[in-house]
Design a protein that fits this description.
412 residues, alpha/beta, FAD/NAD(P)-binding domain, D-Amino Acid Oxidase, Chain A, domain 2, binds flavin-adenine dinucleotide
Length: 412
């Protein structure tokens, strides 16, 4: 007899493991298939800086044990200025966080299979998904299949549910360092901060960061989309590793810094408009959608929210006497996604494109603008509030806006 579950989830990242936690807590038979081996988990998928905020920690019951450091402020840096705002946060040890989610899901009754690489959907005679194929020719069946494999998206792509575009792929890399001068006299005090730096000389077409993990230790990295600004400001042939090395060599805060052995994290995510997220018997969550916050790359909380929205949707369908799992019944997921997971996605994407297309001088002025506005403006801008966005956009930004709109029209 083929193995059958209520729900099969591909991928044990924050999204997949959280979805399993929620569904197992409601007593569903749920199995998670994860490609990596359990003994080393997570290895390649240990990719994240894992800066997050108390709203995520409390909403999902995340224990202190997986926190490397708590921070008080968010600092934004431009080439010649900075802006600091009070915003408590937590930098997680991403690997321990992932292992906690797995252990907690298991305690709730979820089954995990490691060393299980999902390759494609198993379809019935009507081409509706009824299970997954993994590790060559192994199969299992489920009422609902969830793709939570991040940008790999083997099932979502095969079902044509998502189309992750290469030109919208952001790539990132980070090192963990010690011996960092976090309170350097020429810069803001980063000792209890998450700092994001807008500077095309360091991260052309993207941004870089320093997240404090101790008095003189930090996660230091950068990311960018290979967009127009990256082409204009970047050095031909330079690699992302090369850009990070270049920053470490040129910034005095890293003069005595040393890399911690083996502590290098890298990965990618797509910054683009979400299209369809479900079909008959199937839902895509987390970075598979893509869910990551376009402005600051916050993907953990968003991914976990999308996991919860999927679990709520599945719970509702399977509670119904007829247990419908067709596309129409699962459409509740898309609705919850747009309402609760990533509202105002279009304005946030517009702001993201403008931000990363803007020249370095504009970043210095952005810091002044932010200082002039009240404390809530940055939070409102971050939520895609059009009035708040208008406060930090100037008349001379219009050519940039025109350039963006032309680009959008050309690609639509
Ligand atoms: C350098 C970097 C820094 C970041 N910093 C932050 C940050 O500070 N804060 C924040 O909130 N977000 C950050 N992010 C983003 C965040 O890490 C992601 O958004 C988040 O991990 C997405 O979770 P996910 O579960 O959707 O996917 P993933 O984390 O990608 O997990 C996917 C899982 O699926 C598994 N898998 C892949 N393919 C298969 C397959 N075929 N079969 C079975 N299993 C498979 C993988 O091994 C992995 O365990 C960062 C990302 C990068 C790359």
């Amino acid at each position: 007899m083929p193995e059958r579950y209520d729900v099969a989830i591909a991928g044990a990242g924050p999204a997949g493991a959280q979805c399993a936690r929620d569904l197992a807590a409601r007593d569903y038979d749920v199995v998670v298939l994860e490609t990596e081996a359990e003994a080393e988990f997570p290895r390649q998928s240990n990719k994240s800086t894992a800066g997050t905020f108390p709203s995520m920690m409390s909403a999902f019951g995340i224990p202190d044990d997986v926190v490397m450091s708590y921070t008080d402020n968010v600092v934004l840096e431009s080439p010649n200025d900075y802006y600091e705002t009070y915003q408590p946060g937590a930098v997680l040890e991403f690997a321990e966080f992932k292992r906690f989610l797995v252990a907690d899901g298991r305690d709730n009754g979820a089954e995990y299979r490691f060393d299980a690489r999902v390759s494609r959907p198993v379809l019935d005679d009507d081409d509706v998904i009824e299970g997954v194929r993994y590790n060559g020719d192994e199969e299992l069946y489920a009422d609902v299949v969830v793709d939570a494999t991040g940008p790999a998206a083997p099932i979502a792509s095969a079902l044509d549910v998502v189309d992750l575009e290469r030109e919208n792929q952001a790539i990132g890399i980070e090192y963990e360092l010690e011996g960092v001068e976090l309170d350097h006299p020429e810069y803001g005090d980063l000792r209890r901060s998450m700092m994001l730096r807008l500077d095309h000389d360091i991260a052309p077409g993207g941004y870089s960061w320093v997240f404090a993990t101790g008095e003189d230790s930090a996660k230091v990295g950068l990311c960018y989309i290979q967009n127009d600004r990256h082409e204009e400001a970047g050095e031909s042939g330079q690699t992302i590793d090369g850009y990070l090395e270049g920053w470490l060599e040129s910034d005095p805060r890293f003069a005595d810094a040393e890399r911690l052995d083996g502590k290098i994290h890298r990965g990618s995510a797509h910054i683009q408009r979400p299209g369809r997220m479900h079909t008959d018997g199937f839902i895509a969550i987390g970075d598979t959608v893509p869910t990551i916050d376009p402005l600051w790359g916050e993907g953990i909380h968003k991914g976990m929210k999308s996991a919860r929205a999927a679990a709520m949707t599945i719970d509702r369908c399977l509670t119904d006497a007829d247990q419908p799992t067709d596309a129409e019944s699962l459409a509740l997921y898309d609705q919850l996604w747009h309402e609760d997971v990533a509202p105002r996605m279009n304005s946030r994407l517009l702001l993201t494109e403008l931000l990363y297309l803007a020249p370095n001088e504009r970043y210095d002025r952005l810091m002044q603008d932010l200082r002039r506005t009240d404390d809530d403006t940055l939070a409102a801008v971050n939520q895609g509030d059009k009035r708040a966005i208008a406060k930090v956009i100037h008349l001379d930004d219009l050519p940039l806006l025109g350039k963006y709109l032309r680009k959008r029209m050309a690609s639509s």
